[in-house]
Specification:
Number of helices: 13
Shape: globular
Number of strands: 17
Order of helices and strands: EHEEHHEEHEEEEHEEHEHEHHEEEEHHHH
Distance between the termini: 45 Å
Strand content: 15-25%
Largest sheet: 7 strands, mixed
Length: about 500
């Protein structure tokens, strides 16, 4: 067995923040990344930016927008607003030098996104996540006390009546026990759906680890669908067209060029509202998509402001400065996850969670745009610091005899994603959810002992949560249920 003070599972913004803060408290840290490239994570693909309000903006305004958007917990919103801006300034800007865009006078450029009352999102063009990830990974690799293990698959938590004391992992063909307090920072679950903006590894495996160990999870059925992913006839992963494009003037239109979103905020209405409008419009269009019209930008500005989006559009033959961009909705972000308190502590002693895998109460039923990176940074930092100050991990349990799961056929993976898209997607019904649960059970009976087992466990929990909630709320929309109160949408 390998012994550390802290084991961090996941190398995105939350995992890196946890590793850095723990190591700076004197802890010996093992950081495990699933991909051989330690920079590969959900964070890497974030386009829009990270919230960093103007210093003159009162914190109460951000708190208001977060709670209006998702109906979450006030304590979590207040914590984010109180600690987030200082941490972004101190760590990302001053220490790590993330090259956020600035105006001609040298001030940070702030843009506005849906359901925000002000422009408070800073960015690096349309590749903000990649810039942040690169800087954080570089810092982690240089940090004394942190050892990075890339290309590791966590198979289970070392857990029992005394709590969690580490993980069992597959590394370079060997089964290893890695002992220490444990932080789950494994990202989300969007890749369970047929159409998603997430990388292939976003299968909810951290949630499956926690479920099997007995930690409590909540709100998994609040899956946010982004309304503007690039429409391509082939392929299931969708390239995200950032909300910042609409924040800077683009509008959603139908084939006739008329704006399709009938809302006081127009195309910058809350995400769940826009996603449902787009979904409905797609049923009446051929091809099945709508269009994002950004042709109002001055020549050259779109390419300069959104170079990654511009390049991807040109690859499929679209010039966004002259032509409308075809877009469709896709699964984007999970608002629920492993229950975690203000310090990332879960209901299982010795286990913390941070980032998209965690349910901190911040998002409620609908995430406010660009809170994700900031939540990962704040809760990752707090979780690492708290775990490092919690003394030694409990004595390790005997290493269980675990074999790596066998591969599952591609047809089974495809059917899982189709079931989730058809039965647990943008518009849901009790009958559809029940049918989806039954189909997942059939898949479990055949493939539950393969690598499909963990994704099936999480997928079923999503559908069961959606079936149990007898109203529409936030990004969970039941066609056969009334709309709940207290959530405007994000």
């Amino acid at each position: 067995m390998l012994r550390f003070d802290l084991v961090v599972v996941g190398g995105g913004i939350a995992g890196c923040a946890a590793a850095l803060s723990a190591a700076r408290e004197g802890a010996r840290v093992a950081l495990l990344t699933r991909h051989p490239d330690p920079e590969e994570s959900n964070t890497r693909y974030a386009q829009g930016g990270i919230i960093h309000p103007d210093p003159d903006e009162p914190p109460e305004l951000l708190i208001h927008d977060i709670l209006e958007a998702g109906g979450g917990e006030p304590e979590a919103a207040r914590l984010l607003a109180a600690e987030g801006p200082e941490l972004v300034e101190r760590l990302l800007i001053e220490e790590l030098g993330v090259p956020f865009d600035r105006d001609e006078g040298g001030a940070l450029h702030r843009t506005r996104e849906a359901a925000h009352s002000t422009a408070r999102v800073i960015h690096r063009r349309d590749t903000t996540g990649a810039a942040i990830q690169e800087a954080l990974t570089r810092a982690v690799l240089a940090q004394e006390g942190v050892q990075v293990f890339a290309g590791v698959r966590a198979l289970s938590l070392l857990s029992g009546e005394g709590g969690c004391s580490g993980v069992v992992a597959l590394y370079r063909g060997e089964i290893l026990g890695i002992v220490g307090h444990t932080v789950l920072a494994t990202g989300g679950l969007g890749a369970l759906y047929r159409h998603t903006t997430n990388p292939p590894g976003a299968l909810g495996e951290g949630i499956a680890l926690a479920l099997r160990a007995g930690a409590r999870v909540a709100d998994l059925h609040y899956v946010q669908f982004h309304p503007t992913a690039l429409y391509e006839k082939e392929g299931e992963r969708r390239f995200l067209v950032s909300e910042a494009v609409r924040g800077e003037g683009a509008v959603l239109v139908g084939e006739d060029g008329e704006e399709i979103v009938d809302h006081p905020l127009g195309s910058l209405a809350p995400r769940d509202v826009v996603a449902r409008v787009v979904w409905s419009a797609m049923a009446e269009s051929d091809p099945p998509c709508v269009y994002l019209d950004a042709t109002g930008h001055p020549p050259g500005r779109f390419a300069a402001r959104f170079p990654a989006i511009y390049a991807r559009c040109r690859e499929i033959g679209i010039d966004p400065e002259r032509e409308r961009i075809p877009v469709v909705p896709a699964a984007h972000y999970s608002c629920g996850g492993v229950e975690a308190d203000a310090n990332g502590r879960t209901t299982l002693e010795g286990l913390w969670a941070a980032g998209e895998v965690a349910r901190t109460g911040l998002h409620g039923a609908n995430r406010l745009a660009s809170t994700s990176l900031l939540e990962g940074l704040v809760w990752g930092w707090r979780a690492g610091r708290d775990a490092a100050s919690s003394g030694c991990a409990r004595p390790p349990l005997p290493l269980p005899q675990i074999a790596p799961p066998a591969p599952a056929p591609e047809a089974a993976w495809r059917r899982l994603r189709e079931v989730m898209w058809e039965c647990g997607g943008i518009l849901r019904t009790a009958a559809g959810l029940q049918r989806g649960i039954e189909e997942l059970e059939e898949l479990r009976e055949r493939y539950g002992r393969t690598e499909l087992g963990s994704p099936l466990l999480v997928a079923r929990a999503i559908l069961e949560g959606a079936l149990a909630e007898g109203e529409s709320r936030g990004c969970h929309h039941r066609e056969d249920a009334p709309v709940g109160s207290g959530v405007r949408g994000a």
